[in-house]
Amino acid sequence: MASDKPLVGVIMGSTSDREVMRGCIDLLQELDIPHEVRVLSAHRTPDLTREYAISAEDRGIEVIIAGAGWAAHLAGAIAGNTTLPVIGVPIDSSPLNGMDALLATVQMPPGIPVATVAVGSGGAKNAAILAAQILALKYSPIAENLKSYRKGITQKAAQKTDL
């Protein structure tokens, strides 16, 4: 999609989360999905985080991906301030290896959902795929890119016959 307007907002709680979220960002680029990346914290920058969530839809964002470690509740803080789909990526950066982040992300009260993917870098990649699937319902170029991507990973997996 040749557009400068971001459709996906990728946010992370700290610059230390960038390495885990790199797979998400790279996959969004590979699928040609316009996106923006921000570092925001539900606890260290709560006002900025709230403003981001409130203004996202008016700025053209259609899906938000939020990655955070420890028991930080970044995805929940975002979801509580927008009706856009929010995908949470629990990051395995704490002594609890992401279990705290997983529970903080997935255990949302009724009415304020966060779609939650696996802990860590695999989850970050799946967040990009899930965002693409959501956007593919509306944007045929994204649907085509997603189909091509899936075909490619299927072919790559089929080539691995040496066990």
SSE inventory with pairings:
Elements: E1 8-12, H1 18-30, E2 35-39, H2 46-56, E3 63-69, H3 74-79, E4 86-91, H4 99-106, E5 115-116, H5 121-136, H6 140-159
Parallel strand pairs: 1-2, 1-3, 3-4, 4-5
Helix pairs in contact: 1-5, 5-6
Question: What's the gist of this structure?
Answer:
The protein is α/β, with parallel strands linked by helices and 163 residues long.
Description:
The protein is an alpha/beta fold. It is 45% helix and 15% strand. It has a five-stranded parallel beta sheet, with helices on both faces. The radius of gyration is 16 Å and the shape is globular. The mean pLDDT is 95.
pLDDT averaged residue by residue: 95
Question: What is the domain tally?
Answer: 1
> In sequence order, what are the helices and strands, one letter per element?
EHEHEHEHEHH
Number of helices: 6
Q: CATH topology, anyone?
A: Rossmann fold
Q: Biggest sheet: strands, sense, closure?
A: 5 strands, parallel
Cα-atom Rg, whole angstroms? Answer: 16 Å
- Number of extended strands: 5
Oligomeric nature of the chains? single chain
For the biggest β-sheet, the strand order reads 2-1-3-4-5
Which structural class fits the helix and strand makeup?
Answer: alpha/beta
* Percent in helix: 40-55%
Cα-to-Cα separation, first versus last residue: 39 Å
Outline the low-pLDDT stretches. none
Quote the beta fraction.
Answer: 15-25%
CATH first level: which class? Alpha Beta
Features:
globular, Rossmann fold, single chain, alpha/beta, 163 residues, 5 strands
